[in-house]
Design brief:
The protein is of the alpha/beta class. It is built from 15 helices and eleven strands. Helix content is 47%, strand content 15%. The strands form four sheets. The chain has a five-stranded parallel β-sheet. α2 packs across α12. The protein is globular and about 70 Å long.
Length: 323
């Protein structure tokens, strides 16, 4: 295990001490950070989604900003706007909240499409264009958007183009009973003081460490047979009948090459977080659903029969031969 891997292992340990019962969420945030991608998180209120990304900002030398999406939000409220300065008769660009390292787009599906699309250029191109000027975003830039699946009234479903910008779609579930007890103790400040002392003694990781870790992730070895397996898993979403004829009528649209690139980046990042210098089939399989559940489109027949994207992906995992 390299020194960078040890530093990220300690970072992950601090996260799991602060975010109880959501080890998968904290791991996915770190994977997105290493893969230089963005995260869409779906779960009921009160499951520490906001707390997780805020504490990541505390443990890294970067700034965090939260944007509450509402129906009356305007694109300029995200990207920024030009402000007139009468003293010198000129316009000055006032940067919006998107010009931060970690951005939480809370309840992103509550804002209309024109506001959601304001994030498209920022997430995809890492820049914001206002008028004739283009402004670069910070080199370390991660958007974590949340959705509340319980309420559908007054929401605007994200279009496919917006969904494809996210590296992963992570589903957050309720914690186990033991974890819930620890959460209760944390809320009573029985353990929070201990963690606060640990955080004060913990020096936040500089951004240069994240950039160096990304270079190490790129050097992770992946066998040619495993690369082929990864590509086959993507192709299976486009032509599922090659592996399981019953799925031919269940999938309407498969994953694009962007899904292939995302699956490779996430598998490498997970292997690196596990302390290895090579990718295993388990890395690909573990991250498969998170990377692809928002990139495939089920047919009307599948939805009528009660199928979910996760069920289709699980079937494909079972029938695509593992090297």
């Amino acid at each position: 295990m390299s020194q960078l891997q040890q530093q990220f292992s300690k970072l992950q340990q601090h996260l799991n001490e602060a975010i109880i019962g959501q080890a998968q969420l904290t791991e996915r945030i770190l994977i997105a950070l290493l893969a230089n991608g963005h995260l869409l998180v779906e779960g009921a209120p009160g499951l520490a989604k906001t707390r997780a990304i805020r504490i990541v900002g505390d443990l890294l030398e970067c700034d965090f900003h939260r944007i509450q999406f509402t129906p009356d939000l305007l694109p300029a409220d995200i990207t920024g706007t030009e402000i007139y300065r009468p003293q010198d008769v000129s316009f000055h660009f006032q940067k919006g909240p998107v010009f931060h390292n970690l951005v939480l787009a809370d309840e992103i599906n509550r804002a209309p499409a024109k506001v959601q699309s304001a994030l498209l250029e920022a997430m995809g191109e890492r820049q914001v264009t206002v008028g004739r000027e283009t402004y670069l975003l910070p080199e370390l830039f991660l958007v974590m958007a949340t959705q509340n699946p319980l309420e559908q009234e007054g929401t605007y479903p994200l279009p496919e183009a917006q969904l494809d910008r996210f590296l992963m779609l992570v589903l957050v579930d309720y914690p186990q009973a033991e974890d819930e007890l620890r959460i209760l103790q944390l809320a009573r400040q029985e353990t929070d003081q201990n963690f606060s002392k640990q955080r004060k003694s913990y020096s936040p990781l500089p951004q240069e460490v994240v950039f160096a870790a990304r270079q190490e992730v790129l050097s992770i070895y992946i066998a040619p047979e495993l690369e082929r397996y990864l590509v086959e898993l993507i192709l299976a979403t486009r032509k599922p009948q090659r592996y399981l004829p019953e799925l031919a009528s269940k999938l309407q649209v498969g994953a694009s090459p962007r899904g292939t690139i995302a699956l490779d980046a996430c598998a490498r990042s997970r292997a690196w977080l596990q302390g290895r210098d090579f990718v295993s089939p388990d890395d690909v399989q573990e991250i498969y659903a998170d990377v692809l559940r928002h990139r495939i489109l089920l047919s009307y027949e599948a939805e009528a029969d009660g199928w979910t994207a996760d069920q289709v992906l699980q079937k494909l995992l079972q029938h695509v031969p593992v090297p």
